Structure to design on (349 residues):
C-alpha cells in the first residue's frame, strides 16, 4: 500500500507518517529507486498508525508508546504514571483558574498589572521547556516534492521582480534614502535615551534580619552582599543587573541572578528575585521571593517563597529586610517599602 492511500485511510499527513517511521514506531517495507526511498505499508502498519494516533491524541509520549509496543507488561505502569500526571495537571490548572477568576473580578488595564496579580501562583512554576531550551535543530519536515514546488514558486516570483525593477528601482532608492534619514533620527533619539540611563555601580554589604512577620523577637541576622549596575532609563522601569547574595541561600552565591525589573506603579515598586543555572544540560530557575527596595538597593525587603526546598512555592510570612540589627527594625522596613503586607498576612492567617 502506497503512502497516498495510507494518508487517505488514516487521515494522517505524509509528514506525520514519516515522523512515526523516523521514530521507529512502525517499520514498513522500503525500496530504494534512483536514490529515493519508497515506503510500502501493510494493513497491520495502517492499524498500528491508527492506534498510535489515538494514543498521541490523549497525551502519551513517543517513548511511552515505544515501551508499550516492545513490552506489553509496561502498559499498566505507564497508564498509572499518566493518570498521576493528569491529576497533577488538573490540580495545577484549578489553582490557576481560581487566580484568573479573582483577576477577572478586578479592574486590570495592563499585562504588568495582570502579572502582578498572578505572581503568587506563577511563582510556583518555571517557564515552559520550549522557552528555556528552544530546539532549533529539528529535522527538515518538507518532502522533496514540496521543496521542488517551493523552488519553482521562487523562480516565478524572481522573474516578476525583474520585470518590476525597471520602474520600481528608482522609487525604492528614494524610499531607501528616506529610511536612512529616519534611521539616523532614531539613532539620535536612542542615544539621548541611553545617556539618560547611564548605569550606576552598586556595591553594598550589610546585615539584614530574617524573621516571620509578627515574630520580631525571633529574628536572626543574615549577611547581604549586593554588587552590580543600577539603570533608570527614561520611559522605562528601573532595573538592577548583577548579584544579590544572601546568607543561608547557597544558590544566591553561585547561580546567576536574572535582571530585576522594578515596577513603580505595581505594589509600591515590586520586583522578582530569581536565579538561573545550567546543570546536566538543563536550565534551572529558583525564585527566592518578591523584592522591594529604596535608594538603589540601600534598603531591601524580601517576601520569601516557601517551602524553600520545593519546586512549587508561594508567599507566606517569611521575610528578609535590611540593613537592620533587630527584628523590629526589619519589620519597619518591610512595612515601609511594601504595600503587600496586609494581603500576605491575611493569606497566612
Amino acid at each position: 500500500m502506497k503512502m497516498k492511500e495510507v494518508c487517505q485511510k488514516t487521515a494522517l499527513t505524509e509528514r506525520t507518517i514519516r515522523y512515526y517511521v523516523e521514530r521507529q514506531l512502525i517499520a514498513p517495507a522500503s525500496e530504494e529507486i534512483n536514490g529515493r526511498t519508497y515506503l510500502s505499508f501493510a494493513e497491520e502498519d495502517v492499524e498500528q498508525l491508527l492506534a498510535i494516533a489515538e494514543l498521541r491524541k490523549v497525551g502519551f509520549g513517543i517513548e511511552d508508546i515505544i515501551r508499550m509496543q516492545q513490552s506489553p507488561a509496561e502498559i499498566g505502569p505507564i497508564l498509572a504514571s499518566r493518570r498521576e500526571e493528569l491529576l497533577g495537571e488538573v490540580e495545577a490548572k484549578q489553582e490557576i483558574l481560581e487566580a484568573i477568576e479573582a483577576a477577572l473580578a478586578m479592574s486590570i488595564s495592563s499585562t504588568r498589572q495582570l502579572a502582578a496579580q498572578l505572581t503568587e501562583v506563577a511563582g510556583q512554576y518555571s517557564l515552559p521547556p520550549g522557552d528555556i531550551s528552544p530546539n532549533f535543530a529539528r529535522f527538515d519536515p518538507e518532502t522533496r516534492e514540496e521543496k521542488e514546488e517551493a523552488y519553482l514558486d521562487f523562480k516565478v516570483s524572481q522573474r516578476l521582480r525583474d520585470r518590476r525593477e525597471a520602474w520600481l528601482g528608482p522609487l525604492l532608492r528614494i524610499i531607501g534614502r528616506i529610511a536612512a534619514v529616519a534611521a539616523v533620527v532614531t539613532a539620535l533619539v536612542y542615544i539621548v535615551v541611553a545617556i539618560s540611563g547611564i548605569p550606576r555601580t552598586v556595591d553594598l554589604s550589610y546585615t539584614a534580619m530574617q524573621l516571620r512577620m509578627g515574630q520580631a523577637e525571633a529574628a536572626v541576622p543574615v549577611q547581604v552582599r549586593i554588587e552590580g549596575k543600577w539603570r533608570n532609563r527614561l520611559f522605562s522601569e528601573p532595573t538592577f543587573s548583577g548579584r544579590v547574595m544572601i546568607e543561608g541561600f547557597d544558590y544566591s552565591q553561585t547561580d546567576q541572578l536574572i535582571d530585576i525589573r522594578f515596577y513603580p506603579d505595581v505594589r509600591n515598586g515590586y520586583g522578582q528575585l530569581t536565579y538561573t543555572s545550567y546543570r546536566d544540560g538543563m536550565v534551572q530557575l529558583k525564585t527566592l521571593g518578591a523584592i522591594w527596595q529604596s535608594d538603589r538597593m540601600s534598603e531591601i525587603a524580601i517576601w520569601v517563597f516557601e517551602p524553600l526546598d520545593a519546586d512549587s512555592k508561594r508567599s507566606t510570612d517569611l521575610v528578609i529586610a535590611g540593613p537592620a540589627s533587630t527584628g523590629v527594625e526589619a519589620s519597619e522596613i518591610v512595612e515601609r517599602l511594601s504595600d503587600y503586607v496586609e494581603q500576605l498576612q491575611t493569606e497566612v492567617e
